[in-house]
Amino acid sequence: xxxxxxxxxxxxxxxxxxxxxxxxxxxxxxxxxxxxxxxxxxxxxxxxxxxxxxxxxxxxxxxxxxxxxxxxxxxxxxxxxxxxxxxxxxxxxxxxxxxxxxxxxxxxxxxxxxxxxxxxxxxxxxxxxxxxxxxxxxxxxxxxxxxxxxxxxxxxxxxxxxxxxxxxxxxxxxxxxxxxxxxxxxxxxxxxxxxxxxxxxxxxxxxxxxxxxxxxxxxxxxxxxxxxxxxxxxxxxxxxxxxxxxxxxxxxxxxxxxxxxxxxxxxxxxxxxxxxxxxxxxxxxxxxxxxxxxxxxxxxxxxxxxxxxxxxxxxxxxxxxxxxxxxxxxxxxxxxxxxxxxxxxxxxxxxxxxxxxxxxxxxxxxxxxxxxxxxxxxxxxxxxxxxxxxxxxxxxxxxxxxxxxxxxxxxxxxxxxxxxxxxxxxxxxxxxxxxxxxxxxxxxxxxxxxxxxxxxxx
Length: 458
Ligand code: MN
Ligand code: MN
Hints:
- By secondary structure, this protein is of the alpha/beta class.
- It folds into 2 domains: 11-104 and 260-457, Zn peptidases (Aminopeptidase), CATH 3.40.630; 106-243, Aminopeptidase i, Domain 2.
- It contains 12 helices and 22 strands.
- The strands form 5 sheets. It has a 9-stranded mixed beta sheet. Strands 8-7-10-5-6-9 form a 6-stranded antiparallel beta sheet. It has a 3-stranded antiparallel beta sheet with strand order 11-12-22.
- The two termini are 33 Å apart.
- The structure holds manganese (II) ion (2 copies).
- One manganese (II) ion (MN) is lined by residues 101, 263-264, 293, 336-337.
């Protein structure tokens, strides 16, 4: 191929011994993060700890910021902003923003979950985000979340992660009796109200009253002993079922990594580690760990909350400059995953414009559906700036859309940030089996994403 032609670079093809070591070493830190932070609350706690170790201090509205300050804003334990104030005038240089999300598709308990049927205690659920329901049956699930008790105290719940813990379960039919279910379209095989969790099956035989000799009563006793909970406490709880398995290397060569929740913590980890590792203090940097992306970035902890602009206002007012000027000169990498090209399902992608595993960080000019509907279509000038930056810094990157035209589509937080007059483009790691209980990424792409972020904030 002539030097005039464009060609993707496979990172592993190009990597020397030193780069290979860096890629594999970096993935070990990520493995720890993704295994310990399976919900937004846990990911927040993990990153907060790391930030505190790096000298980040809590920020409160009213505080004045100055060059060199390193602060965090902990929004309800589910959404974090890390801010490092640079030496350049912020009204001219703007803020370098990297925004990823830390919520992932999962199965939430309903507020009145427990019931008993035919000697089995089960729990009703309402799924969170876009899942393919049939994928969540017949796998071990762990229960994570928080319960606010009647006295106002919040307790953390995490059952199913320790090898000695029990796990939870959604049953599926045996093939012998599944003829009718097999004949249904895949998406209807298991319905939303069929995602009931197996919670227990030993009755409370010690009950005085015969009507209390139930499995459900026994579970309420266990919950009460362990957490001081009563059934009504579920009304003020956020409890989620997530896959109980840990991240595992995939393939004989270990180049890929399988785990629950790569979308989007595979972008979160490079974002905050790039901030901590890139010590250059010139630019003001903001790393956002957003919640609620999977359900539209709504609510107090989602990217659409005004907290985002409130914090930019706070930075601007610390220097007595216009917030509008700060935003106009800011730029943002919306750090979210893209669909990796899957040789098993070629027909949903268009091969020229897809991101491929191990070909580096995937830059996506626009997301959306149909005629680019509901997408932030980054302009050519900003694409050009990012392209130049990555190329000059030796970052291996590629570009791709989320599937072929009119096959489907999706969105990210990019459009909410762009709406604030901030140049924004999507960049993320290609993911295989996105939104499934066990997603797959390339360790090489994870590392290139990290290098891309370092180049961006340097
Ligand atoms: Mn995502
Ligand atoms: Mn997603």
